[in-house]
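Subject: Sanity check before I submit

Could someone independently write out the structure tokens for this chain? I want to compare against mine line by line before I put it in a report. The sequence has 488 residues.
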Amino acid sequence: MARSFTPTSYEDLDPDRRPSLAAALVPVLAVVAFLGIGSAVLGLDPHPPLIWSIAFVGAFGLWLGYDWDDLFDGIANGLLMGLQAILIIFTIYGLIATWVSAGTIPSMMYYGLEVLSPTTFLPAAAVLAAIVAFAIGSSWTTVGTLGVAFVGIGAGLGVPAPMTVGAVLSGAYAGDKQSPLSDTTNLAAGVTNTDLYAHIRRMRIGTAIAFGLAVLGFAALGLRTSGDIPAGEIAAIQGGLTETYAITVVAFVPLVVTFGLALRGYAALPTLVAGVFAGAFTTILLQGAGFVAAWETFMYGTAPESASATVNDLLATGGLTGSAWTITVVVAALSLGGILERTGVLAVIAHAFTSSVRSPGALVAGTGVSAIVINALTAQQYMSIVLPGVTLRNTYDEFGLDTDQLSRAVEAAGTPTGALMPWHAGAVFMASATGVPTIEYAPYYLFAFLSPFVLFVMAGTGLTVDVNPVRADADGAGESAAATGGDD
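---
Independent answer below. Compare away.
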């Protein structure tokens, strides 16, 4: 579970330092402009635009009357929200390196090339990723382990890497959203005061529709890739794997240890650390590496030198030190989100939204939009769940909606969409772990588009947007909701 704090509400803001809506939109537009110009026009990495944004929002906060201590508290809160993500990124970079050196990922690639075909690969990858993510409750762990292997298998089958990553992410996030072990699922239920299983049940129909459509889409893409395997490519890759690693089912020990602990309910971080130790010791015992060499691999990564250039490229990893680029982006993005929250910018915009809502359907759809916007501005999915989840609870009461409607809206739109935004912590990790830039896999990450789309369709048609008459009457909102189309 992510560590959290209570975000500042509109009423908590000092009226003397509370920005108007017009003023609050200025730093938001500046952040959008900096990120757009820096990345799309100047071709910069995300770091400089994020630094520009932090400086601008910080100056805006000083203009409002906040001092440096206030702004630093905001940065600290933002980093606190993302601390688990930072530690997981560190650990998974080392885990991937040890699983490569142990032969775990190479063995998965070898056997996968034996049984999968280009036609079935994409939908199979999506479904398998969903099953694993549901079982262990972590989309990041699924992508950082199985996803890396699937990219290698896809390369051998002639499937473009962006398609593979899109399929894996679609399955990983769909499974994660329905798992009672997932930190975001528990967080969404917790901040909205919703029973965990009521939250999961409320998400079930929308998730099933969105993921089902995504699988059909990947099946169609699979038909397009059929027959594109380069002559001899599979044999060349398998040959490169067998000459470099001991390919055997024994190499799956780190996989069994990690997923076994996750299935037993252990938290993600200690489970991943156990996977690192299992990978290091499997490297020593199965692949014949020395103790020091195994842990140097954890630290500095792998650089295989087989006869297959494809194997060498796919299995080259950076280890723990290779996480520096990713971590610095995440730290900057979390800092920016923390300052936006502390200066009241996000609270003012949320207040303006709640003041304009006129029907239950509009409230649910607007909640989804707000989760996506907050994802973009704060660059981490925890804030996209916490801010609207806490801010809008009373508004849902006023419209007679149970809290599981709120928890569903923030997770259906907030959790999967972050990996579409190149500066977002999730996207930075996914791109780094798989070696495929966000801009390339985004068009194939179908679930990220379909999950909020299904939510919006349901909100617009009134499907599953159930007004609770008891709650509505208790809050005196029943008549006003009905007069404004509230029974849609």
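---
OP: Matches mine. For the report I'm noting this point. The two ends are 35 Å apart (CA to CA).
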